[in-house]
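Lecture notes, part 5. Sequence design as translation. It can be helpful to think of inverse folding as translation between two languages: the language of shapes and the language of residues. The source text, in structure tokens, appears below.
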């Protein structure tokens, strides 16, 4: 299939596909006339990349998932390298949550000082 069909079937733009190719995540073959050609497996690769990017992974984070799919695994997350990326990302998210909770507490404290009673009756407030 050509780049337009892969873009349509995977839900990304041709520009994004060229970007993924530039970063070595997908590989196009070239037809005699120079057009990029992809096969059915590339739809799954691009879908995996797109799903990972949508939840905050980077292109580099996606590499082990793509390699896992290329090795014949049914899921990009079933290889040890992918599991390590998941674990690292969860630790990063947990750190961000702790940081946001600390910032939230500080802002709530500042609001309470500036406007006593303003936080009363709000759901989820300390």
């Amino acid at each position: 299939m050509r780049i337009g069909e892969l873009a349509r079937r995977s839900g990304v733009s041709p520009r994004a596909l060229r970007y993924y190719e530039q970063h070595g995540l997908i590989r196009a073959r070239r037809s005699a006339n120079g057009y990029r050609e992809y096969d059915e497996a590339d739809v799954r690769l691009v879908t995996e990349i797109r799903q990972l990017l949508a939840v905050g992974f980077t292109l580099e984070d996606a590499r082990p998932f793509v390699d896992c799919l290329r090795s014949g695994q049914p899921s990009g997350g079933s290889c040890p390298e992918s599991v390590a990326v998941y674990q690292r990302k969860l630790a990063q998210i947990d750190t961000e949550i702790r940081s946001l909770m600390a910032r939230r507490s500080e802002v709530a404290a500042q609001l309470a000082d500036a406007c006593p009673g303003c936080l009363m009756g709000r759901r989820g407030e300390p």
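The translated text above is only one of many valid answers, since several sequences can fold into similar shapes. The helical segments are 3-10, 14-22, 40-54, 59-70, 80-114.
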